[in-house]
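Support case: S-adenosylmethionine complex. Customer-provided input:
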Amino acid sequence: MLVKNRFADGLDWADGLRQSKLGPPAYSTPFGAMFHADALDMLHSLPSDSIDLVMTSPPFALTRKKEYGNEPIERYIGWLMPFCLEIKRILKPTGSFVLDIGGSWVPGVPVRSIYHFALAVKLAEEFHLAQEFYWYNPARLPSPAEWVTVRRIRVKDSVNMVWWFSKSEYPKADNKRVLQPYSESMKSLLKSGYTAKKRPSGHDISENFSKDNGGAIPPNLIQIANTESNSYYLRACREREIKPHPARYPEALVKFFLDFLTDEDDLVYDPFGGSNVTGSACESSRRRWLATETTREYIEGSTFRFETPLFDSQANNKDSSRQNAAQTRSKS
Ligand SMILES: C[S@@+](CC[C@H](N)C(=O)[O-])C[C@H]1O[C@@H](n2cnc3c(N)ncnc32)[C@H](O)[C@@H]1O
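Agent response - structure generated as follows:
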């Protein structure tokens, strides 16, 4: 399944990278390859118009620094833009750039930074803003403690922005692939029928409203509780004394955008790979993938995501059933 320090047999599509200065991947799988490399080096090695989706979560401009290092607010946009300009070059005209980015506080005062909005404005000079998404994580801990739990003058920040940028105005996308189960009230409406009339807002609701389209069109608010606590990845990290990545996003978030914006065999790249949640989601969704990460230990840990444990139903079910419950709540 996973081979270390070389390209897996049959990864012909990665042939161009064999000649690049990147060297062999840290590991590869039937669908993709993880490189211990700076994302800028990978970006410079990739041909123009070659990637269907860049899905990533870069280090944020946080007041409390993560162990892998974060640029401060005042330098953040200057640091990230060179990556983004290259991302624009390597995206296919139909491609998308999905950027998960959390907010931040101005150090020392109960005031929010607007760095991620400023970033979006800057990026909109280069890309089209196809749509903004909000990832709501109900399990997020309250912070900064000083403002939220001690002085009680701010509330919990539990939403990340997920900016969906595109190279053209019509990137590949199909919301029929991310339909959600209908709510109970919609189900009964579909059963009993709907009389076409005008809403108080003036919107004309036609007979089509009572047509069963196989599910509800999802909103741009995605609710996923980031509660992974006993997954195979985490247990393998504990057993083998590898520090788990401290800022992982949930596989369900990646899966949503893979289903929505890509087809099987499309090529996806995560420049700030971390524990390679993106690669793992791609592998199970049969999308080809590339990832880069500069911290060796995160790459080591990420290999556990590609092991297939023989007997692991209990632990994984626990995590995924919790996640499913959260998703079901968000759908109803
Ligand atoms: C927010 S984390 C990504 C976590 C990942 N989405 C996951 O779920 O595991 C950002 C990662 O970017 C890595 N990083 C920072 N600068 C980088 C660069 N220039 N090239 C590649 N990786 C980089 C950091 O080491 C960190 O692991």
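The mean pLDDT is 90.

Case will auto-close in a few days if no follow-up is received.
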